[in-house]
């Protein structure tokens, strides 16, 4: 009896596919792909291994519809990647993407080339997974939807409060207080509010539940207030020094090294309390160790406008001459300067994403600048107001609020907002306060704009301003005290050292390639090198062997030899530079016809054979 | 007018009872996570520092031998048992889980030269200076019974080492000749000879199980095939090789521990140049053993240290030493890839962790995820100078440091001298010879 042949496994209909198999077609023959070579700004003059390429699809005009393809009899090409089941829209992928792919072209060895390709596949996978989590977000952003013939600008706060649910309506409130022009700050998670009145009144409270943490009078003038990394501590810039209080109003520290401070700001990831004072000193206090990591005179005079850029931690200081300068605690010169206005500036702010800088000047202009591209000659947007804006703030979702005296208005979009002089384009919302506005902040993760005036505080409802979905690992408005402590410890462990505050926050992850300027400088320096000092120690000799004269002579011989060597080296290096750049080295002219009198000339030195 | 505002229901964000986990909604939008690069860098730096902080590789000291430890035999199936032989002829079987010696007997007169388990782990073969091969049961005898060998084979030649075939019931011994034995017979199946007086190490290839390699006293490494009548090939180095270990995953590669402080990894197909020269030891290397993954190996040296190398890197990734450890004679990597054993002159067997900072014991999933993340970070930022410096730094004993300095000076001096000779000779007269080629004298077929 013959053995029955073992049953063959049923063939798989489709080859088993994993995520990583679906590689993008890299060939160009489908015509739709166009290869464009793009290099990062800092790599433009770098002729090294890392050359970035990107594949860009040609844009087809939306209105031209392609004729539907006739169904063809031939089966689909099996090599062609199957379209994904649930494709992710490109704009969502762009939102989560960390930049273009690094093409392995130019990577030297095959091993690293493959490593790079593999890494890109993983990165794309990670981006895709992150983009898919969008589905899990619970909340939707707020919005105002006007009916036919209505505009949002005509809506008053009381009407909004009447139209929304009770919980939201409770977020609209006002406090009238008498200790004169107020400053305000929300915590990073948007849960607590700190108010500081010029005439000494300091109050901290949970503004959602309206529970007061503490309230006291400092009995001297209060210039500015600022929460520290946790909602249990805050700093108050008083008449002469900066004080740190806890949630209950107990004075924890008096920082005498920060004197006569005008403006305070806090860098949460660096644990730095930044301060600008009346004498023009910018100071950074590391609140985790209590040390001043930077304290120097900016030479700008009285610092009245100071904001930090949340995306890189650089401090933007607005000067009196319409110049915004950007400072890092470890560099004594400004990292960058930007001439924004021809007149004095009245307000400045940086948007929470760190992309735009908004400035306002006495020339009644409000300008929006791209701070990632500092080489620019004009702002992204420029709009003219009837009065100069005295306060500015940008919300998480890119709404702009500005105040002109007692009047304030908000724009739905930072870039396409309009001015009051423009009757065609009305603001998103507007409000007249009962007193002069001195502070203006959007509350993070809420549709609320806090306004501190000369006579108190108002909490206004601005639907659509806040980010609806918070990340509990970053900021959690609902955190318990235990979670807060845990978070504090983690944050402290990953405190970024102040040296890493640079204009480009991704510098640390990039390749440290010399720029063209650095290369040129290195070459230029070659022509000004000094001969090194030669410190020769002669070997100790027994008594009677050679005198000091002999030793000195030997020393001189060695020194001369070293110097000659050095000169030869430099000459060679210079020659190589000349050769590289095709500069002509002065050549001896061709011999003139010999004359009879030449014999009286000194003889040329004999040429040595190399 | 329609108005919509953010209005969160606290029920979705706050847990109801204390038994529940806290609700942690996530939003992976990059704009909510600023300063990604610097924060990641700081994390990587912390991970690297923690790695050094937790680097406590020493696990246990197994004492009991009354003379220096000469050789190890790994049990092929039980992770917790290890056989060791000493200079006084004593063999000890250790229970590694309890860190105790469970059995000991005097096997030979003089040194125990080699120990190996059979494939199923039921018998132990030992060879000694008394020219005998003894077979012992792996199972301890009943209480009251004498320790007696199952079988004793008297060899005609001196014996220096033993290795068991991975797939067949055969083993090989070396001494004056290389002999292939069957477990059932008392005479060798075959003897192979290539004009050498002593072969002092023998090792079967674990994958290509017919191939075996010996180190000989005439500074050569000889390859044999047990099916053939003659040896295959021979490569002669500048100095004697002490031990040889095959890479268990890359079957064609083997590493030898050499007397000249280096280890050499060879490709069997190309013996003229070693694949890699592994530096860093400052005295003769006495033993080498591969990890079961074939990615790393451990080496023991006369300089009283144990070093761990990546199989394809020329410098060691870690160094283990203690104040009391003397010349290390033998070393072994456990078959679960987690521990390293070293036997040294001062009668102790030491157990080390293969990864110095690894956490022993049960690791919870969240902890595991965190370890993996830290590992990835360390890898990603490995090239940053600050991180590199911390990751590379090792405290070494004073005598090693001095010896390193001395060796460096000698090497520099030689380089200077060679350069001078080159400068003063005709062009091409003094060729540049790579470090790899310097140590191989010749290959014979």
TrEMBL record, chain A:
GO cellular component: 90S preribosome; small-subunit processome
Domain named BING4 C-terminal: residues: 427-505
PROSITE patterns referenced in this protein's UniProt entry, alphabetically: WD_REPEATS_1, WD_REPEATS_2, WD_REPEATS_REGION
Positions of region (Disordered): 1-90, 537-556, 580-610
Biased composition (Basic and acidic residues): 18-37
Keyword hit for Oxidoreductase: no
Keywords: Nucleus, Repeat, WD repeat
Biological processes, Gene Ontology terms: maturation of SSU-rRNA from tricistronic rRNA transcript (SSU-rRNA, 5.8S rRNA, LSU-rRNA)
Main location (coarse class): nucleus
Gene3D superfamilies listed in its UniProt record: YVTN repeat-like/Quinoprotein amine dehydrogenase
InterPro entries from the UniProt entry: BING4_C_dom (IPR012952), WD40/YVTN_repeat-like_dom_sf (IPR015943), WD40_repeat_CS (IPR019775), WD40_repeat_dom_sf (IPR036322), WD40_rpt (IPR001680), WDR46/Utp7 (IPR040315)
Cellular location(s): Nucleus, Nucleolus
Bias (Basic residues) ranges: 1-17
Alphabetical list of SMART domains matching this protein: BING4CT, WD40
Residue windows of the WD repeats: 338-372
SUPFAM superfamilies attached to this UniProt entry: WD40 repeat-like
Name used for this protein in its record: WD repeat-containing protein 46
Lineage of source species: Eukaryota, Metazoa, Ecdysozoa, Arthropoda, Hexapoda
From TrEMBL, chain B:
Cell compartment(s), UniProt: Nucleus, Nucleolus
Residue stretches of biased makeup (Basic and acidic residues): 13-22
Transmembrane segments: none
Residue stretches making up the Sof1-like protein domain: 354-440
Signal peptide: none
Pfam families: Sof1 (PF04158), WD40 (PF00400)
Any Gene Ontology CC annotation: small-subunit processome
Stretches with biased composition (Basic residues): 436-445
Annotated keywords: Nucleus, Repeat, Ribonucleoprotein, WD repeat
SMART domains per UniProt: WD40 (SM00320)
Keyword Nucleus: yes
Protein name, per record: DDB1- and CUL4-associated factor 13
Native source species: Drosophila kikkawai (Fruit fly)
